[in-house]
Amino acid sequence: MAFLTTGLIDNPLVAGVRPSSTLTVRITNDDTVTASIEIHGFYLTGATKTQYVLEFFTLAPGGVATKNYYVQFDAFEFQFINSSDAVQVSAWGKSAGGYLTTAHRMVAEELNVIGSEGITGPTGPPGPQGTQGIQGTQGIQGTQGTQGTQGTQGTQGIQGTQGIQGTQGIQGTQGIQGTQGVDGATGPGVFVWGAEPTIIWADSSAPGPGTGTPSDPYNSLQGAITAATSSTFANTYGMRARCIVLIAANSTFNEDVVIPPARHIQLLGLGPWVLGDASLANFASSVPRNITVQTSTAAEDFYQLQGPAFDARTVTVIGTFDSGTSVSTHTNYTDGAIISGDIIFQNVDPVDPSTTIEFQLLNARVVGSIMQALVDPHQGILNSYVYNSRINTINHNGLNIQRMVDCRSDGTITAAGYSEITNSAINGSVTVGSALADVPPTGIFSSQFSTITWTGPLRLDTASNFYFVNSGSTLIGAKTILFSVV
Fold first, then answer.
1. Within this chain, do residues 217 and 321 fall inside the same structural domain, yes or no?
2. More confident residue, 188 or 160
3. Arithmetic mean of pLDDT, 354-363
4. What are residue 15's phi and psi, to 5 degrees?
């Protein structure tokens, strides 16, 4: 069994770039039996060595394995435990551009053997010499152990007769070299979601800037959005490429972000996350941070005119996988996403500002407004679906509230219309143009009102009407009471 190590390899930043970005390891089994190989990888932080790679696999006789590992650290070390001394290991570092790092190149003979040798204890007194036994046949020579102290020289034994030397066989001719086999699939290493990934990872606590994999996430939310929406797959299929950014729990992104037009993008947290610095009480931010969703009829037409395989709408989804609630008695209890500023819909098409797009909030709180841009506003229909969320104000003359379930509104709502509002608290005045039949049932169900003014048609069930009347709210428009018995 062999125990080998590269030793600690320095990999400091030089002009902001490390000499080696990855370490390539090539292992060959020159034995006649299958060998087992165990690989340990460590990185150095200050005076602490931390293990981050542990991999075990077997290699058939004559087999070759190639492994690639992420090594963007100040120093790193790899150790190899092989079941056979006939297993050969070589390793070399590569830069971010894929070039060999000469200082980080180690062939098999340059790897160090590891294993501890204890301190030699004091030599005890020699015991009495016993009688010499009969000399047995010579066994197979084992590996040489540590040399002990020289004992008393015994009497010389009788020299045996020399055996007859056999004749040397004829050397055979060298066979023809076979064709090289097809390269095998890349083994486990840096995890990638597909050949052209549309699932991108983001974590504000990551060292960054990142590549979007689970082991190397982006530390910027805008960086993750840009990577997802500008991939070859997204550029080819537009709205049909459903790009997903998975956000690590408790991430805090103190940045404004922009989502380009003609894209399907989902910003989904694996737990609570904040757009803002979350530096104040109850995760509030000192500087509000906004999400701007850009729209463009021309960008959408570029894809839709290519045929049915490209036909889809622009979609933006913001929230978490957790179907908990962002509606509670205290903001500190929120277990979803917090957007510290506004969600703004902006047109970037100078010819036609009107298009129909889709928008969802899933377990999110929007501290600012859901609104049209003050300059170059989006025109057209904004179909909105809001679940388990808390919003402040809505100001978009094309917004349709298609679904609003288990929600709370704190400010005024100015929208084109509504289909269904269920189990929600409406605390600000509302102005709508119509009660829609797009997503039935149409109306307001099991919901409560603060003292507000409702302008526009009001369809609500008897329970909701009870709260509307008893709150002292004012209606400017026609009321339809559902399920009423005369």
1. yes
2. 160
3. 96
4. 55, 40
